[in-house]
Specification:
With 328 residues, the chain is mainly β. 5% of the residues lie in helices and 42% in strands. The chain is globular, with a radius of gyration of 19 Å.
């Protein structure tokens, strides 16, 4: 992959500071054998070139405000971040300026308020532009189905419609975790990503809803514990796993709904118990939920809120935006 650095990002990069956890956390187990085995079969990224807590980026918020980031899309110098605890979309300058008026929460006209269950965000650049978010699943008749929300270029809510892919009450919380828009043959498509199986349903836009027309199967070598997001740049496809702290890159066919080749698997770096990246074997990036390409050599990921069951040091990197260089 070509290596193109964005000068503005490099000039403004910083690593956000966080308070150190209490010493008793040193009793926590750093890295499990399962994760160690997966990392040995992947390439580990270097430290992020920039990262920051979302509340620090948005004016008027503080550490008590929750941003359960679940999806991100990089476009024209901004990151568009979806969170599953709010129906508003964060628009954040990709230089990550702290407490800046360049960073805003948007979503005028969104139905309801509070929790959204949004798990991903994508962008339609053909004709009249749209942003799409996806509600993981909601009851529609006898089945649970993902629900697609549309926003215009200014992030004003337009409408929502169903994705014709069925889940039951037993697996409705392992439904769509990612979406990626594709324009092909004069039609709009969304590629979904099923959290529990890694299946990629292909949904075509019809007059009303999104109709299932095909499905993409990942290579047998991609066996993540969970599947957290999907994104595309040209024919390059990325699949993110939260539980494994990894992502996989491959090539999507331009003529069929299939994967043509694998590029490789990549792991996020470990670090010390105080959050210093590269200085230990503790899993710091344990809540990565969204991924997008900045360019051919950089990705941005966003992290959800750490659960109370997780070791406290994993909250150091939660609810944040992170920018990483891809290896050569």
């Amino acid at each position: 992959m070509k290596r193109h650095l964005i000068a503005a990002i490099a000039a403004s990069s910083f690593i956000s500071s966080c308070s150190k956890p209490s010493p008793d956390l040193k009793k926590e187990t750093p890295i499990t054998p399962k994760i160690a085995n997966r990392m040995s079969a992947s390439t580990t990224l270097g430290a992020p070139i920039a990262e920051a807590k979302i509340y620090k980026l948005l004016p008027g918020y503080n550490s008590s405000d929750v941003f359960e980031a679940s999806g991100v899309y990089s476009l024209n110098g901004y990151f568009y971040v979806a969170c599953d605890n709010t129906q508003k979309i964060a628009k954040i300058k990709n230089t990550l300026p702290i407490n800046s008026s360049n960073n805003t929460l948007n979503g005028t006209g969104s139905p309801g308020s509070g929790t959204s269950n949004f798990e991903a965000i994508s962008y339609d650049s053909h004709g009249t532009v749209n942003f799409f978010t996806v509600e993981e699943s909601a009851l529609n008749g006898s089945y649970y189905q993902p629900r697609i929300y549309e926003y215009d270029a200014s992030l004003n809510y337009q409408r929502r419609s169903w994705a014709n892919y069925n889940f039951t009450s037993a697996n409705s919380n392992k439904a769509f975790e990612g979406i990626a828009w594709v324009y092909r043959g004069g039609n709009d498509y969304l590629l979904g990503l099923v959290e529990g199986t890694g299946k990629i349903p292909v949904l075509m836009r019809t007059s009303g809803d999104w109709t299932l027309v095909d499905s993409i199967t990942l290579p047998s070598s991609v066996t993540f514990t969970d599947y957290a997001d999907i994104c595309l740049k040209g024919d390059t496809i990325a699949i993110l796993s939260q539980e494994d702290g990894q992502f996989w890159l491959g090539r999507l066919s331009s003529t069929s709904w299939s994967i043509t080749s694998s590029i490789g698997a990549y792991s996020f770096p470990t670090g010390s118990i105080d959050g210093t990246v590269g200085a230990g074997s503790y899993v710091l990036y344990a809540n990565v939920e969204g991924i997008s390409f900045l360019n051919d050599s950089q990705i941005v990921v966003v992290s959800d809120k750490a659960k109370s069951s997780q070791p406290s040091y994993q909250s150091i990197k939660d609810q944040s935006v992170h920018i990483f260089n891809l290896p050569h």
